[in-house]
Write a structure and sequence with these properties.
With 247 residues, the protein is mainly alpha-helical. It is built from 11 helices and no strands. It has one domain: Glycerol uptake facilitator protein (Up-down Bundle), CATH 1.20.1080.10. α7 packs across α10. The two termini are 20 Å apart.
Length: 247
């Protein structure tokens, strides 16, 4: 694995090339990342329905992040580390916001595509009841609860992206992304992209969850992920490792 200094430097220098990626590339890879994330979410739900074991489900959940990291995908939350490039003046705020907003919408599209396809598959009542319960739980959080859980998730997701980027072999990359992702799911922290699957899937099955309830969760969770990923992890490492360097 490369050192924290070299990892931070790589994020800073690569921010420009990422930010200037063609629109079609960001969209396609963003849709893939949304699909992969939703797959991991559903796999965890199936596991917990069958086993009634949240710990076991937590070990299945990271498959979405592993697919995104190793097969290629543009995930909004993981790419909040591009803020390092902004801190080091490699990209401007407009470039950063363009990339992240496109990734965000593409991730949402990928999750909704998976929700649509999954709705046609047909599953037993026990599985469907569990999916609905997860959705109800998430929309029941207050603004502050959702925001706080999302800040902690943002930290872990970006540390997972950090470790996977620092890894040089496939095994190092998988291990790097696996443990932080597993931990945030195990602890019940909130990620905006996974909630783009969890809540719309529950909405499709239950009329008790409205669009406003969905937004009541999605808005603070998105803000919390940005705080944890961009303001805490990205800016923190940028200051610690690059402030006194000519990068």
């Amino acid at each position: 694995m490369i050192s924290p200094l070299e990892t931070t430097r790589s994020f800073a220098t690569n921010a420009k090339s990422r930010a200037s990626s063609p629109l079609s590339t960001i969209v396609i890879l963003g849709i893939f990342a949304g699909l992969y994330s939703a797959m991991g979410c559903f796999a965890a739900q199936i596991t917990e329905t069958i086993s009634a074991n949240h710990i076991l489900a937590s070990f299945i959940f990271p498959v979405g992040s592993i697919l995104t990291t190793c097969c290629g995908g543009t995930l909004f939350t993981g790419n909040l580390l591009m803020a390092i490039g902004y801190c080091r003046k490699k990209i401007n705020l407009k470039e950063l916001c363009r990339y992240l907003s496109i990734a965000y919408l593409a991730n949402f599209a990928g999750c909704l595509i998976f929700v649509f396809i999954l709705s046609l598959c047909g599953y037993n009542d026990e599985t469907l009841a569990f999916i609905i319960n997860v959705g109800h739980t998430k929309v029941s959080y207050s603004f502050l609860e959702a925001l706080s859980r999302a800040v902690l998730c943002g930290i872990l997701v970006n540390l997972g992206a950090w470790l996977s980027y620092a890894g040089e072999s496939l095994v190092e990359k998988i291990c790097g992304v696996f443990f932080p992702t597993m931990l945030f799911f195990l602890c019940g922290f909130e990620q905006c992209i996974t909630n783009m699957y969890f809540i719309p899937m529950a909405m499709l099955l239950s009329k008790d969850i409205s669009i406003m309830m969905f937004l009541h969760n999605l808005i603070p969770v998105t803000l919390g992920n940005i705080i944890g990923g961009a303001l805490i992890v990205a800016s923190g490492y940028s200051y610690c490792f690059l402030a006194n360097n000519n990068d």
